[in-house]
Amino acid sequence: xxxxxxxxxxxxxxxxxxxxxxxxxxxxxxxxxETAKHYGAYLNDELVSVASIYMDGRVARLRKFATVVVFQGxxxxxxxxxxxxxxxxxxxxxxxxxxxxxxxxxxxxxxGMESQGTEFIKxxxxxxxxxxxxxxxTI
Length: 139
Prior knowledge:
Oligomer: single chain
Distance between the termini: 37 Å
Number of strands: 7
């Protein structure tokens, strides 16, 4: 597996296929895509997982993270998130957060993320805000 930077246009088809197949392709675009950092995980030169990071100072927000269905459950997404977290820490980010689909809360907990607040609905899908501090704990 290879992880590399991609464009938002490269991420768009997978976002659409996995996250919002019943919506128009344009629904999968995000304000800020032009300045966000987009990552892609490739298997044999095939893009199979995408994630986008939107920075606000030292706070990183994950949006539109998706792995093609036939490649889910193989650890590809976990490796992609681990790669992103390591890069964020190395670049001085202090926190990492996302709006996690309720069905994915367990996935994000494996990275130390915790639910904040109560469940909410966006476009008929249940979500929880989740976050984790990236500042090393010193004793």
